[in-house]
Amino acid sequence: MLFDTRYFWAVFTTKNPEQLSKLRSILDESKNAFASTVSLYEIYKLTLSDEDRTVADLRVDSVKKEFTIVDVDPEIAEEGARISHRVKVPMADALIMATARKLRVPCATDDPHFTEVKRVWI
User: Fold this and answer.
1) Could you give the strand order of the β-sheet that contains 107-108, starting from the edge strand earlier in sequence?
2) Given a cut of 80, is residue 58 above it in pLDDT?
3) What is the mean pLDDT of the chain?
4) Which of 2, 23, 41, 104 is 20 to 30 A distant from 73 in Cα terms?
5) Could you report the per-residue pLDDT of 11-48, keeping only the tens digit for each?
6) Any idea what the CATH number is for the domain that residue 13 is in?
7) How many domains, in total, are found in the chain?
8) SS3 letters for the chain?
9) Dist. CA 7–CA 27, nearest whole Å
10) Range of the domain at 83
């Protein structure tokens, strides 16, 4: 399963133990856990706006340790552009959806933009 930025942000920011437990169970049930380098960028950027560089480093490092990181390659970039053009979504969302398509895995997200891939956690 590919985990979208919104999944990570929910894990990092929720104050609700039940929600955190639900999110953790999605990860635990995943056979293979992937994250896009685009999500690393977004996590770092969002954290810098709310916290500081130390917290951003810790969050990104924790994702890199727990997940297989998938880089944006030419195939993902081209598919992302097609998705973005077709369904009018932001570049980051399109690239993450293209990554899920390339890997042939569902995406853990609650983002309504993710219409081009199977979603888990909605």
Assistant:
1) 68-70, 34-36, 2-3, 107-108, 119-120
2) yes
3) 95
4) 23
5) 999 999 999 999 999 999 998 999 999 999 999 999 99
6) 3.40.50.1010
7) 1
8) CEECHHHHHHHHHCCCHHHHHHHHHHHHHCCCCEEEHHHHHHHHHHHHHHCCHHHHHHHHHHHHHHCEEECCCHHHHHHHHHHHHHHCCCHHHHHHHHHHHHHCCCEECCCCCCCCCCEECC
9) 10
10) 2-120
